[in-house]
Structure formats: C-alpha cells, structure tokens
Design brief:
Organism: Mycolicibacterium chlorophenolicum
Keywords: DNA-binding, Transcription, Transcription regulation
CATH superfamily of the largest domain: Chorismate lyase-like
Structural class: alpha+beta
Protein name: HTH-type transcriptional repressor YvoA
Helix content: 25-40%
Distance between the termini: 51 Å
CATH class of the largest domain: Alpha Beta
Radius of gyration: 24 Å
Domain HTH gntR-type: 53-121
Number of strands: 12
CATH architecture of the largest domain: 3-Layer(aba) Sandwich
CATH topology of the largest domain: Chorismate lyase
GO molecular function, one term: DNA binding
Number of helices: 9
Shape: elongated
Largest sheet: 6 strands, antiparallel
C-alpha cells in the first residue's frame, strides 16, 4: 500500500500541532517541577550518520530550524555542549562547533553564569526609504529610544556639504540609542536644519521620520551608503558588544518633495542582530 504524500495544509497542521504540544508539555513540566523555569530546554534531533553531510552541520541546521519555527523561543536556555554531546552520542568538539556556528549567526549567545541562550531573531530590513523605528514597529517589535545628545550649532564641513548649507547656518545634531524589545540595536547620529528639527523630548517617544512627517516634511528620496567596521569602545559599551565587534554602517542623506536636503545620518548597527535585504533585477 502506497501512502500518499502529505499536503502542505496537512504538513502545516502537523507542525502547528507539534509546537502547541511542545509548549503545553513544557508548561506541565514547569508546573510539576520537572523543568525549572530558566532551565535548559531539551531538543529532539535526528542525525543521519550515514550522510556525507558533517554531523556538526546537521546539528546546527536542526537547532536553527527549531529557533526559526518557534520550538526554541527567545530567552530559552540551551543545553550545554557536554550534555548535548552525551545525549546525542557525539563528540564534544562536534557539538561545540555546531553551537559556535549559531553563535556566529547571532541566533545563540553565551552568557557567563547563565549559559547558552536563544536570542531575538535578527532585524530584517529591506533597503527602502523607511526609518528604523517604522521597520521595527511594522515587524511587531517594540522600538524604544534613549536620547544620548542633542545640540544646536554650526555644522562640520562634511555635514554642511551633505545638507547643502553654509557653514554659518545652524543645525541640530542628535545622537540616539535605538533598542528593539529592550535589546540595544543601533547608535544613530542625525543632523537637520534647525528650522525643521523636532524637540528633544519628542525624539524619545517617536521616530525621526515620523516627527518630520508631523511637521509637514515628506522625505521623497535618499542617497545611502552601506559599509562595515569594528565597534569603538564607546559604541561597544552602548550596544552590549565587545570592542571591535563587527558593525554595519549606513550613511544617508534624505531629500524632501522639493529636492532640498533635510537630513543627514550616520548609523551603526550590531551585525549579529541586523541585516539589510536587497533585490537585484537583471536589465
């Protein structure tokens, strides 16, 4: 008798049912004291030892799938490599390499005194004319802002050039720390002509572009440069990273409906928590 392949709707039902059962069992284990809150979450993994695919890679892929599918949630503690190796009959170097692969991808993090934890999914941002505040809110994450500096004064030469302003004109320089769900994500420095700049208090509760729209300034076009570099000590401290940790950088000059430059920004993002997405089309 030949068993017909499962339909996509059936596969979706089975996956959903499995995730629900997994969560219910974890709740019951916690209630019965069999799984302490904050204890490491066991994960069912099937490995094909006859496959030419390395075991560490199979293990890393299985753990990543569990994170992506929600079986392992942000904040869950993960088994230590020794316990995982013993349970799966693997060598410790194999489990260590698999876990390190996911640490390097930003899906797991090692914390002293806590162990290995699942982190929030990286922020996925398309290269479009949007603000980070709007992107986070659209993705269902909670953006918060800490205002680090707010000054009014004459611009530096590079800022004056980007905004097409004379050196004796005043600009507002704003430096902020942006967090997603309470986790630091980016350090942003922006420069605007003083006539259109939002108040300092307003920037702690709303995004910059949102505040500009409320003032009738509609950003229509932007010139943007994306790069990468190591974090300075000050940036590392703000972003909860190590000095010289990899950062993504973005420099953007934004223009309004009339073609006037209204904002110039220099931003840096944690590479472990953030990436840009582009679509390329053949002409």
């Amino acid at each position: 008798m030949t068993v017909p392949p499962a339909t996509p709707s059936c596969q979706y039902f089975v996956l959903t049912f499995y995730l629900v059962v997994n969560r219910v069992l974890r709740f019951l284990w916690q209630a019965q004291g069999k799984l302490e809150i904050g204890a490491a979450v066991p994960l069912t993994v099937e490995l094909d030892r006859s496959s030419p695919v390395p075991l560490y890679y199979q293990l890393a892929q299985a753990i990543e799938a569990a994170i992506r599918d929600g079986e392992l949630a942000p904040g869950d503690r993960f088994e230590n490599e020794l316990a995982l190796a013993k349970r799966l009959s693997l060598s410790r170097p194999t489990t260590r390499r698999a876990i390190q692969e996911l640490v390097d991808k930003g899906l797991l993090v090692r914390k002293r005194g806590v162990g290995t934890q699942v982190v929030q999914n990286p922020v996925h941002r398309r290269v479009e004319l949007t603000s980070l505040f709007d992107d986070l809110a659209r993705a269902g994450q909670e953006p918060t802002t800490t205002l680090l500096d707010y000054q009014v004064g004459p611009p530096e030469e590079d800022v004056a050039r980007e905004l097409n302003l004379a050196l004796d004109r005043e600009v507002v320089s704003i430096r902020r720390l942006r967090c997603a769900n309470g986790e630091p994500l980016a350090v942003m420095t922006n420069y605007l002509p003083v006539e259109i700049a939002p108040d300092a208090e307003e920037l702690e509760s709303s995004g910059l572009y949102q505040s500009l729209r409320a003032r009738g300034v509609h950003i229509r076009l932007a010139r943007q440069r994306i790069g990468a570099r190591g974090a300075t000590r000050a940036e590392a401290q703000l972003l909860d990273e190590k000095p010289n940790a990899p950062l993504l950088t973005m420099a953007r000059t934004a223009f309004d409906d009339s073609g006037a430059a209204v904002e110039f920004g220099n931003h840096c993002y944690r590479a472990s928590r953030y990436y840009f997405d582009t679509t390329l089309v053949d002409r």
